[in-house]
Amino acid sequence: VIETGTPDRAIVTTCAYCGVGCSFRAELRGDRIVRMVPWKEGKANRGHSCVKGRFAWGYATHRDRILAPMIRASIDDPWQEVTWEEAIAFTARRFRELQAESGPGAIGGITSSRCTNEETYLVQKMIRAVFGNNNTDTCARVCHSPTGYGLRNTFGTSAGTQDFDSVEQSDVVLVIGANPTDGHPVFASRLKKRLRQGAKLIVIDPRRIDLVRSAHVEAAFHLPLCPGTNVAVLTALAHVIVTEGLYDETFIRTRCDWDEFQDYAAFAADPAHAPEAVAALTGVSAADIRGAARLFAQGGNGAIYYGLGVTEHSQGSTTVMAIANLAMLTGNIGRPGVGVNPLRGQNNVQGSCDMGSFPHELPGYRHVGDAATRAVFEAAWGVALDPEPGLRIPNMLDAAVEGSFRGLYVQGEDILQSDPDTRHVAAGLRAMDLVVVHDLFLNETANYAHVFLPGSTFLEKDGTFTNAERRINRVRRVMAPLNGFADWEITQMLANAMGAGWAYTHPAQIMAEIAATTPSFAGVDYDLLDRLGSVQWPCNEAAPEGTPVMHVDGFVRGRGRFITTEYVATDERTGPRFPLLLTTGRILSQYNVGAQTRRTANVVWHDEDRLEIHPQDAENRGVREGDWVRLASRAGETTLRALVTDRVAPGVVYTTFHHPDTQANVVTTDFSDWATNCPEYKVTAVQVARSNGP
Ligand code: SF4
């Protein structure tokens, strides 16, 4: 319930939208929220906020929220409201029946990057210790799993290297595959402030994003590459730096593996990687690549920020490693103002990865095959753990279609709308005998569910989120859960109904267990967070107040590792039938599939997804501004209105994916990153034609 009037108290908590992790004072009058005010002491936002965190929290009391559990025998039946006891007993019994019929690996679950660290930890613990397998995955599968793979293999840890304050000491900032103004607005403000002070900017993006030219900000270079050619452009930058002798030999000799560097340098120096050789492929002028390379190598402190335009490709992991190579090549690691900085999408996607959501990793990024790590958790949890990695989300869906995977628990994630190739996701869900959706609203995935467990919002629980700079922020309960329970309590009820015997009474106890089992969190507790406001992991005996900048004296893996990054073209090609390339992104006022923001006043700023198309491509198709167009790929088709703009290059079209009416992911394909299966959302060959509407 939104009240107006004078507040009489305030509770500091953390925004539940993007990975910036802004701190807010929730100001209350009695038990009613009056307003959300950005908290000046918040170290991620320093008193700033955007239209999502500040205004788009009313979904917590929206009439669409489901507050009572529901079950149904089949997805064609109507929902029946039941008590919590009935819903939990039914779910537990059905999961156990499926395992009895088809084996322990026939069920699994998906953790939520919207939920707290403590809640995510409990979900993966339930899957590992109670389900008895490693069939756990997370939405990071479809966003930053390549970041985990790429940075772990080059630097030794799966996270960004800097704090946000670091940008204030940058001299050159390279933004690739990210649109901070829309996706990470508060960080964008801090970046723009630094640019206004004179720092130089290089943007690598198919679109002319706002940062390229806006009030008081103009990029020194915009490299508008053809979607899918990130690796070719990054290797061409490295080619210039290597062949012109602009690399930081002292840094490389003291901090990196010199033999591997020499192999890499020989690779990068190959004339096939010269800017002139890749200009036609990438669509970027050789002069601009050379200019950008010289600026980044010689311009002082060089920082790299990137987003899903890097990871959501068939070479997503390769691109992350190419970025790491560039940072090591120029000595831009291990001090303020530099570094490799993934801009994480969801509020707690960093945390969900830290907490062991992936099927191959226990909390703290330790492989399930490592006996010593398993022994730590076996002692803490009192069960034997499976040493074999479990199924990733796409593998679960494939196995469901084949009949060997039969039951899925999905917490706070609308996989039908957010995952690629919607038809395949629907086929997998439809094939399952038990789909349990634990969420705030009856989302698209719930159309295929047999059990709906009402979830709680960030305003209704205690816990922590970890933002893109590894900062662990407190989430504090502002109002009682309208559904009766916080999400961690619901997971505990289900685990106990399946025989767990857990007895947590507050998330602080869960954090104590995380700290006891996970070295990078060893020093974290709620008292410390209350005292410091927040802390960046690793936080342990060696760093009792956390670690703003990583890899200061040495890389986590010892020596930094250069990895050869050969460009491999995606299998998704344009041709006569599908002549345009579609890429996707976000808009400032909305968030992901829009489940929350569409249920707030923010919808006035973006009431539909539109297709950006270059004037030349529009004219060729007889399409004018506002016309309905049919967007089709080999995976599917949808209909939306056209927005004619030269922000996109000829041959490229672009849309957002915030509205279920559009379902942009109907057209995205099942191609994915070679290392992590992260979907290739950013490159889809499509055709566009005028239409009479949906
Ligand atoms: Fe929330 Fe991100 Fe906006 Fe900050 S920048 S208020 S974390 S959506």
TrEMBL record:
<keyword id="KW-0004">4Fe-4S</keyword>
<comment type="similarity">
    <text>Belongs to the complex I 75 kDa subunit family.</text>
</comment>
<comment type="similarity">
    <text>In the C-terminal section; belongs to the prokaryotic molybdopterin-containing oxidoreductase family.</text>
</comment>
<keyword id="KW-0411">Iron-sulfur</keyword>
<keyword id="KW-0479">Metal-binding</keyword>
<protein>
    <submittedName>
        <fullName>Formate dehydrogenase subunit alpha</fullName>
        <ecNumber>1.17.1.9</ecNumber>
    </submittedName>
</protein>
<keyword id="KW-0408">Iron</keyword>
<dbReference type="GO" id="GO:0008863">
    <property type="term" value="F:formate dehydrogenase (NAD+) activity"/>
</dbReference>
<keyword id="KW-0560">Oxidoreductase</keyword>
<keyword id="KW-0677">Repeat</keyword>
<keyword id="KW-0001">2Fe-2S</keyword>
<feature type="domain" description="4Fe-4S Mo/W bis-MGD-type">
    <location>
        <begin position="8"/>
        <end position="64"/>
    </location>
</feature>
